[in-house]
Amino acid sequence: xxxxxxxxxxxxxxxxxxxxxxxxxxxxxxxxxxxxxxxxxxxxxxxxxxxxxxxxxxxxxxxxxxxxxxxxxxxxxxxxxxxxxxxxxxxxxxxxxxxxxxxxxxxxxxxxxxxxxxxxxxxxxxxxxxxxxxxxxxxxxxxxxxxxxxxxxxxxxxxxxxxxxxxxxxxxxxxxxxxxxxxxxxxxxxxxxxxxxxxxxxxxxxxxxxxxxxxxxxxxxxxxxxxxxxxxxxxxxxxxxxxxxxxxx
Amino acid sequence: xxxxxxxxxxxxxxxxxxxxxxxxxxxxxxxxxxxxxxxxxxxxxxxxxxxxxxxxxxxxxxxxxxxxxxxxxxxxxxxxxxxxxxxxxxxxxxxxxxxxxxxxxxxxxxxxxxxxxxxxxxxxxxxxxxxxxxxxxxxxxxxxxxxxxxxxxxxxxxxxxxxxxxxxxxxxxxxxxxxxxxxxxxxxxxxxxxxxxxxxxxxxxxxxxxxxxxxxxxxxxxxxxxxxxxxxxxxxxxxxxxxxxxxxxxxxxxxxxxxxxxxxxxxxxxxxxxxxxxxxxxxxxxxxxxxxxxxxxxxxxxxxxxxxxxxx
Lengths: 249, 312
Ligand SMILES: Cc1cc2nc3c(=O)[nH]c(=O)nc-3n(C[C@H](O)[C@H](O)[C@H](O)COP(=O)(O)OP(=O)(O)OC[C@H]3O[C@@H](n4cnc5c(N)ncnc54)[C@H](O)[C@@H]3O)c2cc1C
Ligand SMILES: Cc1cc2nc3c(=O)[nH]c(=O)nc-3n(C[C@H](O)[C@H](O)[C@H](O)COP(=O)(O)OP(=O)(O)OC[C@H]3O[C@@H](n4cnc5c(N)ncnc54)[C@H](O)[C@@H]3O)c2cc1C
What we know:
The structure holds 2 protein chains of 2 kinds.
Chain A: E1 2-6, E2 9-11, E3 33-35, H1 37-51, E4 57-64, H2 69-78, E5 82-87, H3 94-108, E6 112-116, H4 127-135, E7 139-149, E8 152-159, E9 162-169, E10 172-176, H5 188-194, E11 199-202, H6 204-207, E12 215-221, E13 230-232, H7 235-245
Helix pairs in contact in A: 2-5, 3-4
Chain B: E1 2-6, E2 9-10, E3 13-14, H1 17-32, E4 36-42, H2 46-53, E5 60-65, H3 74-84, E6 88-94, H4 97-109, E7 114-118, E8 120-123, E9 126-131, E10 136-142, E11 147-151, E12 166-169, E13 179-186, E14 199-203, H5 214-223, E15 226-229, H6 231-235, E16 256-260, H7 266-269, E17 277-282, E18 295-298, H8 301-311
Parallel strand pairs in B: 1-4, 1-6, 4-5, 5-12, 6-11, 7-11, 14-15, 14-16, 16-17, 17-18
Antiparallel strand pairs in B: 2-3, 8-9, 9-10
Helix pairs in contact in B: 3-4, 5-8
The complex binds flavin-adenine dinucleotide (2 copies).
One flavin-adenine dinucleotide (FAD) sits between chains B (204-206, 230-233, 244-249, 261-263, 265, 267-268, 271, 282-284, 287, 300-302) and A (13, 37, 120).
């Protein structure tokens, strides 16, 4: 079966972002970019399915600017067979990303599509669910275990109270949670080989999707900073402060 | 236009978070007008519907009682919301794993955007939400006819329970041929729910093992606290996934948060830095957690915790 993996270019998770002084947006100049960590988990899962002989082909797709090709090359180095770049320099909001991915799903007809549960820049947690709705495919979100069984997919999901297991009729959409797997690192020879793997480029126009959105970002502000506190010298002092100063005990 | 709130419920009980989402709905109604309806979908949910009807500000509780909604699977619940949404200008849910699972389906099928995890209502069409792990707060304006919104419950004070909304059954049997429920392994605990607890005591990798988490039990007992954890502690298998606090876990904002053996990575801070009072216990005085802690104790947790328990 064919597996499609959606990957997004985001700031590296170690970067603490700053807001621009004019409060128009966050400042991304010279910030280190990387593949969204949840997308790394998605690629890893797809590649493992191929190694187990369950998947026959792994296709990576991204929607984003020219530079997002770096993340597609990373996916190829990690084991994807080919890549599709839906190239646009415009900001792409979740609904538009889902519509574009739905077109790609329509063209590629994967049995399984794997996305991250959330992109760590917008923290939206929407695209996989929207893609499932738009393609009429069932969804297994926040997956910590995935098992293909004939034409059924068993997905164990991390939910607020614990774990839930559902059966989905393939073709289906899955979004990854942190405990699904531990992604590998790309090895140098694989990074070299990835440069020769096929990478197709399309545009939103060619796919017939407008990236306009009903949402406008009016302002971006820094959060209220916490005042630095004090160090206490002993457990006694801590208990005293909590009782008599903070009055929370 | 009216506002619809999707009720969150577990084990036959209305979740506290719903009262916080109704509070957000009241703020929207104050600017844009409209009644507030609550949708209770599930199987055998009449007691939940009665609890929802008591929430202040609720005009009407619409009840879809059907086996197809029993486990809150996204596909049928999404279809139900789509069928009802024509009556509403806003549909709200808590930013729980259920709300996050279902609401984007309604948005996509209605061809509108979703606004995730709002923390403030500026007006009926403008909201604030954290982005980049809470290191920036975006003000977002929506021009969509239907506004689909998830709400961070800790950012809104719960409404009271002195209301008397009408309860009305909806007869809407949607089918679900796409997905089915197999089983659920829910963590049993007598402690308060993490998201709603007044006090949270969390352990990190520094706890060293799952067994050592017992050191937190006595303290949590004395404080009536919920127990949380860092991602590292969950990944290491010390505790269950539902205890993870952070950007990609649960967001908490208790009166008192005690972080033990947690370094204070930005992803962890994103989940707890709105707590009123933060205490950190860590043996490394350089640990970043001390930058947000009101009271920091540089100490070995294996000595500090038993002493703390005895002195509370
Ligand atoms: C009102 C508003 C204004 C914005 N303005 C700007 C702006 O000016 N500049 C800017 O840079 N950003 C802007 N953004 C942010 C950007 O549009 C978001 O990244 C966006 O919402 C895309 O989806 P997501 O990251 O939220 O997806 P999520 O639902 O959080 O991501 C889940 C998963 O979906 C998949 N996915 C998501 N996006 C893609 C993609 N593009 N390609 C492939 N797979 C994907 C990945 O597998 C990912 O792990 C704005 C967002 C909003 C809401
Ligand atoms: C995509 C993504 C999402 C993430 N989401 C989350 C999230 O939601 N929540 C989250 O928490 N993390 C999250 N993380 C992980 C985060 O980056 C950190 O790795 C994690 O929070 C570290 O956990 P920790 O503080 O317990 O461990 P460490 O960073 O290893 O810190 C352990 C601390 O314990 C202290 N210590 C050790 N022994 C003792 C002792 N005997 N007495 C006292 N102190 C001691 C040490 O000094 C140290 O400060 C995420 C990461 C990524 C990439």
